[in-house]
């Protein structure tokens, strides 16, 4: 399986590599969650932290030493430094990588959580603010149950379920060549393998434009053609390979275009009719309307990253465009579980529901392992997670002023109840 970090090591591009000592390599995160956000990796491929054992202790100590040195070289105060790993399964690239970040203040502003047990919402709670202005004497806006959060890549699991509903309605076939549905885009396929909707949904197509960094809230999003062909509007879209997993946001832009073409409706209307409405997600939208929270990355400072400016960054809707609440995502999860279990009142037919069952680790936008499903979403100023624990699901959002990467020293106990997990997390994030 191709690894994007191994590719970076192999190319050894001095414009990307910040540090290289022959054993470890450091470079800037492609989607930074802070003003300084580096990744440190071993050059030899190693999976996530679940694969580590006592034999790796020297390696981890060495990585910590390098991380401290790199952050100190940036003149970052010790209290503003965060070093840690993502906890599996919330790891987008399966190559061990340590996050090095500069964060002011060290505390998030708001977090909300909902859990589902036995097909119903069993627990809801929220804490903090949806807006914390730069000056502390300004009025802060408290979170409410109606406050919408930007949930990043979680948008994609809703899109994939909407596509399966279109399959049931006879509008698309998962295994047909996408050229059957869209004629206004030209592709140059170096692999010569057929590109299908199933492969796009499962990130099995490596397309030249892989990621979208976000646009100003006041900036009009580029057209589908501009997103995929670039500013120069090249003649065709380059497909590098087909069949190997490679997280690729351009695939979901193409899926959005296919959905709009076959349904002959705007994307946000399709998503309301296929998912948001049937799931009862009345406080969710793929449009930037309603009671929106403000993403923060520095202490009491709303997001301001180059062209991605206050109060939030905009993204292609099918990629990271969903604004929703914790409760609404819990309602979606209830319906998703019904589809997986092939219940009579689910949103999918039993035949189509089979597509959600697989032995592969990545399936229709979800990370899937041992019958457990999880997905993580992240945009500038926001991070969201969905995970199920033996038929119970936990979902929480938070507006970031600090990385939510788990420090090396912090261990989570699998025996924690969902409520205990939430409050343990609150204590970690907000505690001294």
Automatic annotation (TrEMBL):
Molecular function via GO: catalytic activity
Gene3D superfamilies: DD-peptidase/beta-lactamase superfamily (3.40.710.10), HIT-like (3.30.428.10)
Motif Histidine triad motif per record, residues: 95-99
Protein name per UniProt: HIT domain-containing protein
Transmembrane annotation, as ranges: none
InterPro entries assigned: AmpC-like, Beta-lactam-related, Beta-lactam/transpept-like, Histidine_triad_HIT, HIT-like, HIT-like_sf
Entry similarity comment: Belongs to the peptidase S12 family.
Annotated active site: 97 (tele-amp-histidine intermediate)
Ranges for domain HIT: 4-110
